[in-house]
Amino acid sequence: MKTVLIYDSKNYISRFLKFRLKHAYKFIKFTNGKFSNYKLSKAYTYENFDLIIVVVYEDLDLVHLFDLFNLKIPVIVASENTGLLHLLSGNLGTTTVDLNRIKTDLFEDFETKITLLS
């Protein structure tokens, strides 16, 4: 089972993905500088993850994103800010997901991109 790290400060997308894809992937949530379970923080380093998803709600979430660009792990950026998504996908070649879509389309987009990158 592949392991996916999710940076999600509001916990919306992480709960959505855990519920829909829990049988295919192991999701570990990272919020406010901490892993969801303290014991996990000692066991996991970035090399343990097959994919990282960063959900950008506000500017502070971008700090975590820019720290990840030096890693050799695929990153998916999800946001409602279409300008940010165009910038990241066009100039930096990052895989992006637009959160302004309806849930069924959003799930299909995440599922496709997670499967391709992991």
Computed over alpha carbons, the radius of gyration is 13 Å
The largest beta-sheet arranges its strands as 3-2-1-4-5-6
Secondary-structure element pattern, one letter each: EHEEHEHEHEH
- Which shape, going by the Cα principal axes? globular
Based on secondary structure, the structural category is alpha/beta
**What amount of the residues lies in strands?**
25-35%
> What is the makeup of the main sheet?
6 strands, mixed
Instruction: Average the pLDDT over all residues and give the rounded result.
Output: 81
Report the oligomer.
single chain
**Helix-residue proportion:** 40-55%
Q: Please give the count of helices.
A: 5
Distance between the termini: 11 Å
Regions with little confidence, pLDDT below 50 for 5+ residues = none
Strands, count: 6
List keywords for this structure.
6 strands, globular, 118 residues
What is the compact description of this entry?
This protein has 118 residues and is α/β, with parallel strands linked by helices.
What does this protein structure show overall?
- By secondary structure, the chain is an alpha/beta fold.
- It contains five helices and six strands, in the order E-H-E-E-H-E-H-E-H-E-H.
- A six-stranded mixed β-sheet has the order 3-2-1-4-5-6, with helices on both faces.
- The chain is globular, with a radius of gyration of 13 Å.
- The model has no long low-confidence stretch (mean pLDDT about 80).
